[in-house]
Amino acid sequence: MSRPQNSPKARRDVIVATACAVFVAGMVGAAYAAVPLYNWFCRTTGFAGTPRVAATAPAHQLDRSLRIRFDANVAGGLPWRFEPERSTIDVRIGEVVTVNYRVANLSARDTVGIASYNVSPPTAGTYFTKINCFCFSEQPLRAGEHRDMTVVFFVDPEIVKDPEQDGLDTITLSYTMYPVRPQAQGAEPATRGRS
Fold this sequence. Notes:
Number of helices: 1
CATH class of the largest domain: Mainly Beta
Strand content: 35-45%
CATH superfamily of the largest domain: Ctag/Cox11
Shape: flat
Distance between the termini: 66 Å
Oligomer: single chain
CATH architecture of the largest domain: Sandwich
């Protein structure tokens, strides 16, 4: 004898199955959103030494200066030379500074790289603010191509209000270039961009 469709057990089974499906869909959505949300969180707060992003420069500069050290690394599998044009620079807090990193594709084929960055010490990431950067944008280079890539930044004057930064005299901006794997046949080629 078959059970009626609207029995309490059948309704409970449908509710449990629906709840499980919603939970799985939510977890899949959270997995896809985790990286962009984490990147946004880090850029907004300076968490883990991630510099913040700004559209405008601060209204004033301070007399206090800091030494900014530039570091460049290339991950395995990317045949590039990547280096800052200068290894250090002294800047006044609040001063807008433009520096270049030089990159060269040392291989006989076109390649694409993408840079990630961080700031050390990590607590300085809250105050190290970029206006323009080549990071997180695919950078295609033809075989043998050389290019300068620009970073525009400032150290936020709010840093002097943080007693934890009183003894700070050097901040390191470190980039690592990673290879971007070739796209599938028929896909549009990577384009240059800035963040």
